[in-house]
Batch of 2 targets.
Target 1
Amino acid sequence: MSALWVGLDVGTTMVKAAAYAPDGVCVAEASAPSEVRQGAAGESEQDMANVRACVMRVMAELGGKIDVASVLSLGIAGQGDGFWAVDADGEPVTPAMLWNDTRAAADLDIFADSDATTAIGRGCHTALWAGTSGVLWRWLRANDADAAGRVSRVVTCADWIGHCLTGEWATDWSNASIPFLDFATRSYGDAQIEALDCRDLAGKLNLPRSANTRLGGLTSDAAAATGLPEGISVSVGTLDLSAMIVGMCMDRPGQTMMIMGTTAVVNILSDSLAPEAELIGAAVLHPTAEIAIKVLAPASGASAFDWFTRLHPHTLGGQNPAEIAGKLNSLVADVPPGANGVTFLPYLSGERAPFVAPDIRAGFHGLSAVASKAEMGRAVMEGAAFSLRHCFASQGGLPTEPVRLSGGGSRNAIWCQIIADILQQAVTVSDVSDQGVWGAACIGASAAGLGDPVMLARRVEDHVTYLPDLNNAPLYDRAFARYRVLSDAMRAVRTRLRSLEEPDAWQT
């Protein structure tokens, strides 16, 4: 058998691994759920030893399905941000506080009244949130001085797993990006560290490097636990999103990728991020190329679709997502673009891009006595797509190249066509959904000396491309203009309504 490249993706709730032939064919795969503990005070934690054990089990399961002697390399991707800390012996100090941990949210109000958010934005083009390392370090320092005093090194999930497999420590460019990296100098920024009062953390951070460099060889202990050969090359771990970008062969300015999952994500590759008056979203450096990835994540994606179909269980219910989607698609197929003037603002969970408004709420506009369920269903699908266009508009305009689309929503042909028409750009969907694990495998192979990871990631995939119907462009331009007016108005209404409510009324 030819050489095998192994990719590992350590997500928040799932650990996945796969072995690939160099042409990108998946030879075997394995996965297991990863436990997350959440608490009433906003805690979202994982036991670092349990994450390590889960990785070893998944890798051992994969090893049992392949000729392990053929494994040449291993690449690692993982969830990003949060606070993963070890002591001087390399052992966890506390459970990992994850990227979605909100126990330090109160500090964000303090930062908003200072120059901290400006400094962070100027350095790494990211709007600060509670689940970033600097914010969580401040919380730990204030609430558990003993634990804070034992912290020797602050890492990420991928760094931790890389160390468990090789005994070495490293952080890649993408994982190092938030909140301390200054993109202009590609080093940790003194202004950002100072702004967050994290001078005592600066010496505990790994210096960043490219993900496609060799971290080390698989140790004897890791080899015994996984069944993989001792000494195989392991690359520096990277962010899961970055691995997906590599797996989609993206490393040029102007390339875009979107995810229509429960929430939505718009990713725009750029070599010229400009300061923004109102900073929204995040940015990370590409793991292997001299370029950045702007990340904008609307709060509602396919969740809006699911919400609407759940309201109509007798007519839009089904045994599986495909059956449900088929019923809604049949319902909306004959409704023209713009849903006959019905507009849906998809703010079911507030909004976080292209503006931050956690207390804004969803709603229909343009309903009349003759409005139909079909028009409302079409408006829901269009509203989620309009939120994607709104993100592009905040970054300078519509995409100039075809857009790659993944996530559950990408399996809905009618919705994909709506998205293509609204963005006025071709939307391409692959028949595979393993780009993150495949990207990690290619980064691992690159670190083993086999070439550029994006070039290695090229493989034969069946794609469906949805070309925009240009006849619909003026219709959707008007409908999107209406969406923008209503969105802006709802933000103003939200501000006025808030003054009428009890202080905690919008928190439910």
Target 2
Amino acid sequence: MAPILRITDLKKTYDGGFEALKGVSLDIEEGEILALLGPNGAGKTTLISTVCGITVPTSGTVTVGGHDIITDYRAARSQIGLVPQEINLEPFEKVWNTVRLTRGMFGKKRDDALLEDILRRLSLWDKKDTRIKELSGGMKRRVLIAKALSHEPRVLFLDEPTAGVDVELRKDMWEIVAELKKQGVTIILTTHYIEEAEAISDRVGVINGGQLLLVEEKKALMERMGQKQLTIELREPLSAVPEALAEFDLELGEEGQTLTYSYDTRKERTGITTLLSALSDNGIVLRDLVTRQSSLEEIFVGLVKEGAA
């Protein structure tokens, strides 16, 4: 089966020569959740804007459900729902009319039951007759999501959907995304909240400087690139790491109470056994040992630094 979204060698150069996208290629399968991570100015929003037809690409191709975004724009765009970063809503219009109008603009038949279900899932049903200007910022963002879902898209773009919103909405968003995935909706999420990507994505893409550094299954990425750390709690504090232990590149914690040892989970030998023997030989007595895996955030920061080097 062909990918629901296929991006091939996509480039975007603005007047003045700035290259926002430098040959991005990416296939996204139906029903998956892809988290697209990258710092400000990395190209995330430009990529989304181009796929959604807001920005015209300089070169390359994009198809959505088999429809080209240039030669078959209307059919391609009807497959896409977009929740933008900016809240741009008609302030004097009511919630119900706003959502219903969006569905009509995509040529969909009236379906009040569907729209009611969407509003209820977003905790907006009791606000359906409220004017947009009377809503809180979090509620306005819920309206944006309702609008994006109103025409039953197969692909949903969430561009920083929980930036600046309350924890409750963020939690609701995760639940909504999980439910949409069950329904077969494909979701591309850009976020600065690494925990969102770690919690709900199937794959993670890292973009920086207009280039896609990698796209990989989240679990495989963390296993492949994740470093583990062994924190050694000491019975007696140290003023410095003994010279005899220099080969282990240990980091001495505050007040000399801990030693931290980083090791690669992919290597055949971790070196932990050798380290523990060396500690004993140097008269260092342990109180406890604690291990931890690198988080997706730490992996992401490392990748961006490598890409910028």
